[in-house]
Amino acid sequence: MREVQSSKLKAQSSKPGHRINIQVAPHLGAKVDEVALRRLAAEVLSQEEVAEQTELSLIITDDEALRELNRRFRGVDAPTDVLSFGAGTEEHFVSAPEGPPYLGDVVISYQQALAQAEELGQAAGSELKLLVVHGILHLLGYDHQEEAAARKMREREEHILSNSQMVGRSDSQTT
Q1: What is the pLDDT at residue 16?
Q2: Residue 160, number of CB atoms within 10 A of its CB
Q3: What angle do CA 3, 129, 73 make, to 5 degrees?
Q4: Per-residue b/e over 132-154, b at no fewer than 16 CB within 10 Å?
Q5: CA quadruple 155, 57, 35, 52: dihedral positive or negative?
Q6: How many angstroms separate the CA atoms of 77 and 83, rounded?
Q7: What are the percentages of helix, strand and coil residues in the chain, rounded to 5?
Q8: Among 22, 64, 95, 175, which one is most buried in terms of CB atoms within 10 A?
Q9: CA 25, CA 92: separation in Å to the nearest integer?
Q10: At what angle do helices 124-139 and 147-163 cross, to 10 degrees?
């Protein structure tokens, strides 16, 4: 798996609120509006009443990285659009006892977001936002394995996206 550029790692740390880390693969940096995604992630956590100072990482990368993660953790040798790794369910997460709570990682394939956006006739930024919301909701316990749970998750996604105050270049990005 390609490493994500660590110098792109940013966090909201000394202010009240949630701590959102964003990592973008170097070759995708100009295509992703990190500020808009960070705002959206913080808004999801706020709407879901997640404790302030809770940390979350969003990782925007490519099909190759998602395929490897999907193969390693789910036994599926194919790329996917989004994977969520909750800190409470994964053995490899270690947090300092005095540190803020860590919710987990949401890993998104930009290539899958772009392909899905093209298929739906919308901007890549809109699909990225949906995947961010979807991934965070998974970390918070939402699921879509059964129809009733899937319906609840879709309704929550739509509610969050329709109530978000998101503006920025990610809405207009298409490539």
Answers
A1: 64
A2: 22
A3: 45
A4: bbbbbbbbbebeeeeeeeeeebe
A5: positive
A6: 14
A7: 45, 15, 40
A8: 22
A9: 22
A10: 120
Architecture of domain 6-165: 3-Layer(aba) Sandwich (3.40)
Q: What pLDDT, on a 0 to 100 scale, did the predictor assign at position 168?
A: 39
For the chain, the structural domain boundaries read 6-165
Tell the burial category of 169 from Cβ atoms under 10 Å away from its Cβ (0-12, 13-18, 19+): middle
Distance separating alpha carbons of residues 128 and 2, to the nearest angstrom: 20
Q: What is the pTM of this model?
A: 0.81
What are 131's two structure tokens? Answer: 């995947």
Structure confidence by residue, pLDDT tens digits, 12-51: 333 468 999 999 999 998 899 999 999 999 999 999 999 9
Cα-to-chain-centroid distance, residue 66: 13
Confidence of residue 89 (pLDDT cuts 50, 70, 90): low
d(CA 104, CA 74): 17
Which residues, in sequence order, are CB contacts of 161 under 8 Å at separation 6+? 129, 130, 133
State the CB neighbour count (10 A cutoff) for residue 62. Answer: 19
